[in-house]
Structure of Beta-alanine-activating enzyme:
Amino acid sequence: MDEIKLYDLYVNNETMTFNVIYNDFKSVQTLNYKQNHFYVCEIAEILNTASATNSVVGCIVNPGIHLPAIILGILKASSAFIFLDVHKPCISLKNLQNYVPVITLLMEESFFKDLSKILCDCWVEKHKVTFDNFSSLILLQSSDCSKSLCLNSKQLYSNSHKYISKLAYVIQTSGTTGEPKIVQVPHQCIVPNIIDLKQRFDVNSEDVIILCSPVTFDPSIIDIFLAVSSGCTLVIVPDQIKRIPKQFIEVIVNSKATILQATPSLIQSLGNGFIKDVLLSKDSNLRVLAFGGEPCPSLEILKRWKSKENNTKLFNLYGLTEVSCWASCFEINLGDNTLTSNIPLGKPLLDTNIEMTKEGELYIGGEKRWCVINDEQWPDDRHKIMRSTGDIAIQMPNDMLYFEGRKDNIIKFKGQKLSLLRINTLLEDVGGISNYVLHFDNISSKLLLFIIQDSKTTFNKKLRYNVLKKLQSSISNLPVIEIITTVHIPLTKHGKTDVKKLLSLRNTKDQLGKNCVPMSVSESLEIVCKLWKDYTKQCSIAETDNFILNGGDSILALQLISDIEWEFQMEIPELLDIVLNCSFKDVCEIIKSNLRGARKLKRKEENISVSIKEFSPGPSPKKVCIVVSECFEIASRRGYFLRCNHSKERTCNYKICDKLFNTNLSLELKCKFDLKKCIDASPCVAYFFRSNKLLVFIGSHAGLFCCFSLLETDVKWTINLPDRIESSSCMSLCGKYVYVGCYDHNLYGINIKDGSIQWHFKTGAEVKSSPVVSSQNVVFVGSHDKHLYAINGENGKLLWKKIIAHSSIFSSPTLFEKLDAVSVATLDGTVAILKMDSGDFIWTFHYKKPIFSSPLFTSSGIFIGATNNCFLHFNISGSLIFEYETKGSIFSSACVILNNDHIVFGCHDSSVYCIKSNGENVWKFCGDSPIYSTPFAFQWKQSKYIAVASVSGVLYILDQTHGEVKHSWKCPGEIFSSPTVLNNFLVIGCRDNNVYCFSLLNVS
């Protein structure tokens, strides 16, 4: 007997009655079986014409009316499918190409314009199909390409024909149980799931199934093919609608849904009132409610939800994406007196094996139920494979398995094991709590309890006492508990509780109450409008706009509400529901009505608020070893330091100070080096302790890039790059390479030992931005092609690139590794913070005035200068805190002094400013000409100084406390370079073609 494939489930549907409904709250579209089948055949024909059969087709589409037709058309062409994340398709594609042969893409035309600019040039448009009431679908194929990733994918393709016919689809794990994995799912693994669950749920052609999961989450395959195989109706809504409880409820009610398969978190987000009064009421249309993806709600919660007259069947599904999709199923009979609070996992599904180790860890798989993970080889047929779930279970005398928790949720405290699931069970008996999430923080050894209160409950000492009393009476080794109240539990795109966002909420909930200042209604609404724009990144707002549809999400809604309540010092309990479900006008109306009532917000002492994590001015000092295990320290523009951190048993040649009496500082020219043309770049200086070498790396407009020895006053090596160098260099943390940008569009990785070019990476335009390197040896640099790049510092391979705005990047990136963040600014005034590992935006702020300055991180946030005479301060959330006005444009970047509280920067009004982090002026130094260079703060002997240069060529040494001139030196040419100080030497470039190297001397 031939193996049954997913497409066979569609073909064998004898009813010929499969229907699709799509509701985006703008219109409702429908497709019957005949219409859907027409598009199935059309897509299959396009793939056949493009010779894209027997391959993996990457899909970049939003879930729409033709989603089933796209899937079935690909399967009809004997190919497999994968849905790429539409929010980061290029990153998803690159991850995929490492393991899977993808040479064909199907994408919505709406994505094509933007993606065609950032996809590899080898992707060429081959075909287009236009659906009724639907934008066109573009078919792209990869032509010959020499890039390693594309070559790798084509090599995989050439070796794939022996197994591609067995492959149904490819999916990426959510990463909730570890690093995300690429999972290749054979037909024989997923088809038994469809067959078994169709029988257990008794699915028929009269049923209505709502697609609850995104297409990047494999339970969506179950929903789609339960509908396809039974000939019933599949209801599809945009993913953002599922995050708007009121609208999703409307879909469930109006469609008369009979089958829901969803995470407990998604169901709970609909609210206890709706679940009890509608979804599981006496008159509910719902036949089947299946929970999966997270631990099932307890027996007590289910009993509170379900009316005694309700006939809905409840199921608990358990599984692992690595054995897509479900492994076991348990039908929950609330009248079964043998059931305990913890719902069993149930019996294995068709063709599935479940095994448990002595330690209680579950493994699932079988001879047919297996998938291929990442770069694994396809196994032989009838080869039994078992996958670790990472879950701990217990087996009761009735042979039933019960979920006990994740391996990482069985915590050890005071030498004893403690199950977080047990604590969850105990919390269900505490009154006054509507919903909650428990998380153990390993750093503080605290249990973090996020709670949603009942609408009738006010958080007070009694509620906190009840929580603690319940837990302490049942658990002897209970850790310290921190309770954080919230009004909403954020969900991931897969519908699971988003613990990361909850932790972010905890760490950013620091907006302390301000003195309430009376303001007019119009002023108040202007504040609301600005906050709305900040969180949704919208330039304008219409009265009918919805926060979620504008680009917000549940966690941003919480932050918006928190800001509004603190801004106006009033509590608006109903505001979350209105923000999520209603329009901007509705939000304004409720705020206006509350302003008239003026209910002052009382801060609750019991609700512990944790301040934003403090920024540091740069990476923590760390010891870094080169090949010969030699320690070194680096200094470069903006006071960036890596310092020697030897243990006491070892000594180094570096001496911070040799005299403790008061002295005055003087400069003495030690040497200078001619680089043939102007030097606008700033020096990177490194001192190697064992070899006692003090090296300078710098380039010039002549394209010369040199390494000098300051102590030996000679040139170690010189290379001639093809074009001008304005970029300042930086050194790798392994001590082997130095990186510099060039006008020839390239970033170069150069061997420190001999100046040989190890690699070069070509961007789309001049690289004037100065690179910065992370502790993971990732180099970040901007280009005039508008992209920020992340490049592997060892081999020069691109990790990711991101268009920041519609203008070039002159500014240099700045890292804050504690938050995994990189910040950069553009010439159109955009300031952005991105995730270092993915390039995803954390936030952007469009200041709309050109910015040449580079961002500075401090404990108070981000500081940066602009050309409209303003020095800007942003908080961590991307809000503009203040604009400090000067009398000239600011091209200089800032440095931080005096325990990270004072900020110093130069200005084209010929001044150096020192201000406090709150914008208060400390001192101002007036120089002889505009100041372009970035100040460098350093300590010499017992005193603290600032080195800075004016455009006319005067080098100033200022005292940090008062800004008084302690020494000055006039260079022969203009200076746009910034000074660097290390190991009693000051180095700076000049437009007379020379690099000047000064010794720091004391004058008694």
User: Anything to note?
Assistant: The longest helix spans residues 33-49. Residues 641 and 874 are 24 Å apart (CA to CA). The radius of gyration is 32 Å.
